[in-house]
Amino acid sequence: MTVSKPGVGIAGLGLISKTHAAAYKRMSDVVDLVAGCDVNPEATAAFTAEFGAKTYTDLQDLIDDPRVDVVDLILPHHLHYDAAMAVLDAGKHLILEKPVAPTYEQSVAIQRRAAEAGVHFMVAENSRYIAAYQAVHRLLREGAIGEVIHARTYLRSNEKAHLSMPGYWRTQFKLGGGLVMDTGAHSFYLLKWLLGEFDELTGVSKKVFPLDNEIEDTAEVYGRMRSGAHFSCGFTSVSEVPHSERLELFGTEGGILVDQMSDPVVKVFRGQHDFLGEAITEVPFGPDAWHPGGWHYESVITEVTDYVRSLVEGRPPLIDSGDTVYAMRVVEAAYESIQSGKTVTLPA
């Protein structure tokens, strides 16, 4: 069923909300940004001034607004479950920032409730919409490097300022904080989408920078995919180089290297003597991730655009939100391994 010009309300008016709002404004011919919600009065005032939308300080008031057909939840992780259920119980469409919820059980429950409610539901996992990874997905389908036997990801950022803030929710495990929770969910989703399910993994984590909080700032999770491929995912939140991502895939007939700080971003190498490789020119170089033209910013714009277009056109979005739910199973297995010091096997 197609939907005529839905109205959107954004709950949670932090940094990423501005990119979501910019996407809705770009699509003003098919969607209306009608409201925002946040407990911080400074955030609501700034949102109204910039986007001209009404604001609320109570989520239920946003949900009950008859102009709001779609709720875009961009909240701290520990609030996802209750907020998502409230939206779904009201029969409103839902786009939910990753990770789905702090636990795999809650993530499954949200997905099931969305299916029961018959609403248009999507988890906003921008990795699916990053141009470089879309090119990689195409290359793998074409068999460009044969069978993948080793995959490696690395995600880095500098969150020292945020992680130094007293009481900041990302510094507490009980509030859904943790590097593997926040950042690992991206890599685990990406590998699930590209290569399939995980078989077994081992996780290690460290605090390498002396910040007064309980969470890890550096971690590695490695193991075996069900396909037999080995994988390794590295993460850090205390990097003194720009926020970026890498992906390396090594196959039986070649390899693919992705680096958002390199130009070209994606190169394919067809064998050990292919020293030049092939640049994938369809992927733009935009290393300043969080600003227009940057790889992260543009992926979020594309993600929100796909959600709205798929709602209006009556089709599923490109992303399979079930893969984002599965990523939370991998997150939990990684923390189980980190805490126990043992390898964890994931059920099929």
From TrEMBL:
rRNA-binding in keyword set: no
Name of the protein described by the UniProt record: Gfo/Idh/MocA family protein
Domain Gfo/Idh/MocA-like oxidoreductase N-terminal positions: 8-124
Listed InterPro entries: Gfo/Idh/MocA-like_OxRdtase_N (IPR000683), Gfo/Idh/MocA_oxidrdct_glycsds (IPR050463), GFO_IDH_MocA-like_dom (IPR055170), NAD(P)-bd_dom_sf (IPR036291)
UniProt organism field: Nonomuraea spiralis
Alphabetic keyword roster: Oxidoreductase
GFO/IDH/MocA-like oxidoreductase domain residues: 133-256
